[in-house]
Amino acid sequence: AAMRDEVEAALAAAVPETDPPHADLPWLRDFAPFPIPGRLRAAMRHSLLAGGKRLRPALTLAAFDACRAAGDSFDRDPNGPFVVEPVWRENAMRAAVAVELVHTYSLIHDDLPCMDDDSLRRGRPTCHVAFDEATALLAGDALLTLAFQILSRLHPHISVGACIDELASAAGAAGMVGGQVEDLAAEGDPHSVGSGKQLEVIHRAKTGALIAAASALGGHVAGAPTAVVNALRSYGANLGLAFQIADDLLDLSASSAALGKTAGKDVAAGKLTYPALYGEKGSRRRAEDLIAQAIDGLEPLGAAADPLRALARYAVDRDR
Ligand code: GRG
């Protein structure tokens, strides 16, 4: 909640209502060789500024803060570049924005008729319902592209290439997109997934990879050592899978409450879910185990990682 206003302002500035972009955010200046067409801009803003939970940007910022607080104990390069503090923090916000842009693109595309065919998202009409399918598809494309443009403009006191690689690997064919393909392939034939192990592989890729990258990016932009970045990535991966299980459980209880049925929307759509495979209790236990693992992995960051511990709990205790 403390980070939300700052994140919302940075997201709004990333796709500003009018040109030129906000003068206080010089990293967004000179973006466009051509003006963004009004309808595309409106579609991008419609989905981006619809008030999501902003979990992923919060993870990037909290991971950054934890690394900076624990930073004195890091084995830094004594000849490393001179660093001005506000620049580091600005990089953290840019990375946080980039992750949320990728997440929003994935939701727009996931809602399209060729995928989940949903008409509501974040409490408002989905992008293709509010605009049209072609505009929604292109708004997603534009958000995805903008994410990497923003990362490419990070202040180069850290490895910009490593940040781009982190997000691209998580979002691409071996991450979120691949997981989505496997998930769609299993639709209508849940038993084709075969086992809990396979379901876990799908969800680790579809949902977990981006959450893992969000956490790792906080380490990258803080200039943390590789071991700490790796620890943050595996914290995020465990949290991400627990988050997906919690999502399955929320879907189940929302559908049960609304329809008086036991099957959730995903089960009704023929998707294999955690509760369908392990039952409600078993799923909750698995989510709790993953959160315990995520929290254990934060050991190297000590007390500085307390907000990350709280975010891990939030991922499974949330009610939406
Ligand atoms: C279309 C390439 C492509 C990928 C789509 C992540 C994803 C892949 C689709 C989302 C489907 C879904 C509802 C998954 C359950 C977990 C999840 C990612 C929920 C949505 O994220 P939240 O809860 O959403 O963080 P807000 O709106 O709060 O940002």
From TrEMBL:
EC number: 2.5.1.10
Keywords per UniProt: Isoprene biosynthesis, Magnesium, Metal-binding, Transferase
Coiled-coil stretches noted in the UniProt entry, renumbered to this chain: none
Single biological process term from Gene Ontology: terpenoid biosynthetic process
Gene Ontology MF term list: (2E,6E)-farnesyl diphosphate synthase activity; metal ion binding
One protein family per Pfam: polyprenyl_synt
Keyword flag Glycosyltransferase: no
InterPro entries with a match to the protein in the record: Isoprenoid_synthase_dom_sf, Polyprenyl_synt, Polyprenyl_synt_CS
Cofactor: Mg(2+)
Enzyme class: transferase
Family label: Belongs to the FPP/GGPP synthase family.
Protein name in the entry: Farnesyl diphosphate synthase
Species classification: Bacteria, Pseudomonadati, Planctomycetota, Planctomycetia, Planctomycetales
